[in-house]
Structure formats: structure tokens, C-alpha cells
Design a protein that fits this description.
The chain has nine helices and seven strands, in the order αααββαβαβαβαβαβα. By secondary structure, it is of the alpha/beta class. The protein has a five-stranded mixed β-sheet.
Length: about 210
């Protein structure tokens, strides 16, 4: 076992909290804690203050559910975005990934997860109903289903397609230059940008999957 007992309870507490972060094991947590200990106290104060502000002051856009410092995120408040095209993504990291490509000028809708019966995540647990209400208030022309090429992503895309069929919309999905099982946030910008540009009608993917 790695360091059952550390020489300071304060160090132990810091390591224990840092180790709770995703991808951070106990060894990495100890290295980070010792690094902070070697820095000027002001550095630790700034870090702690920024984390408290992150938790207390950051909010979610009331339209698309992206993170924001105000009621509306920069995309939703922009006058230059094409609001007739709504790109549906799983997570805020996907918004960041697509924005980095510079190839999309529409707006977004962040689901906050994917439907996964195995994990107990139902349609009402993600932001699908708010998408329907959003379209009722502000009709769009196209829904881009930019979801992961996984079983959960495909299940969610099909549910959204069926749930919103009553609207006069065209549905498209990013082209499958992306490998099955890939997450959008890990895809290089060129591939993702081309996938957004060369998106295909969603109905076409349904037909090809039935063959």
C-alpha cells in the first residue's frame, strides 16, 4: 500500500481531496500537494479562491445549458450565430471541441448526458424536454445530432428524432469519419470540423443501419 501514513494530517487531508479528482491517483495527488507546499502561499490562496469561485459563481445558460458566467452563454447571446441550426451535444466539453474547429456557426443544446438504461439514465434525466420547449418557443430548421458513436449516443439520437418528429425540422448527424466508440472531445480538430461540415441527413443513417 502506498504511504499508509503521511507525516502531517494536513498533507493527508489535501492528498485525500486531490485524489478524488478524476484521473488523479494517490501518487499524483501527493505530488501536487507537495508542489503547492513548495510554492509561495499566495499561489495556494489564488488556487483555492479560483476553485471556490468556480463552484459558487459559475452558472448554466438558461437556453442551451452550457456553462456561463451570466444567464446567457456567449454563443446564445451572440448576434452573429445562426439560430436556425441547433447542434445537440452530450457535454460542455463537446461544445468546446466543436468551437475549436471554427466550422460551426449555429447554436448548441447540451444534454448533460446520454440515455443509458443500464446505468439508470432515462430520457427525463437529460435535457431533451427542455429542447422540445425551446423549439416550441423558437422554431429552428435543422437539428444536428453531434453525439458519440456509441450505443448510448445512437439510442439518444434516435429518441430525440422520434420525440421531435412533430416539428418541421431536418435532422442531420455528423459524418462517420469518426470511429465507432469515439468521444468527440478526443477527436482532432480537422476530423471533427470536416464531420460537422459534411454532416448527413439523420434518416439516411437509419436506413443504412437497417441494411
Amino acid at each position: 500500500m502506498f504511504f499508509e501514513t503521511l507525516p502531517s494530517k494536513y498533507l493527508e487531508n489535501a492528498v485525500a481531496e486531490l485524489a478524488k479528482l478524476p484521473g488523479v491517483g494517490r501518487k499524483t495527488a501527493l505530488r501536487l500537494a507537495l508542489h503547492l507546499l513548495r510554492q509561495d502561499k499566495s499561489q495556494a490562496t489564488l488556487l483555492g479562491h479560483s476553485l471556490v469561485e468556480l463552484r459558487e459563481k459559475i452558472s448554466y445558460c438558461k437556453i442551451c445549458h452550457n456553462i456561463s458566467d451570466t444567464d446567457l452563454c456567449p454563443v446564445c447571446s451572440s448576434t452573429s450565430r445562426n439560430r436556425s441550426i441547433v447542434c445537440v451535444v452530450e457535454d460542455i466539453r463537446d461544445v468546446m471541441a466543436i468551437e475549436r474547429t471554427g466550422q460551426f456557426n449555429g447554436v448548441y443544446h447540451v444534454l448533460g448526458g446520454l440515455i443509458s438504461p443500464i446505468d439508470g439514465i432515462r430520457p427525463e434525466d437529460v435535457q431533451i424536454e427542455s429542447l422540445r420547449r425551446r423549439l416550441e418557443a423558437n422554431p429552428a430548421q435543422e437539428i444536428v445530432l453531434a453525439l458519440a458513436a456509441t450505443v448510448e449516443g445512437d439510442t439518444t439520437a434516435f429518441y430525440i428524432y422520434r420525440h421531435l418528429k412533430q416539428f418541421e425540422l431536418s435532422f442531420s448527424t455528423i459524418s462517420r469519419g469518426i470511429s465507432i466508440g469515439d468521444e468527440l472531445e478526443y477527436i482532432d480538430e480537422i476530423t471533427l470540423g470536416r464531420s460537422i461540415q459534411s454532416r448527413i441527413p439523420y434518416q439516411q443513417t437509419l436506413v443504412s443501419e437497417k441494411r
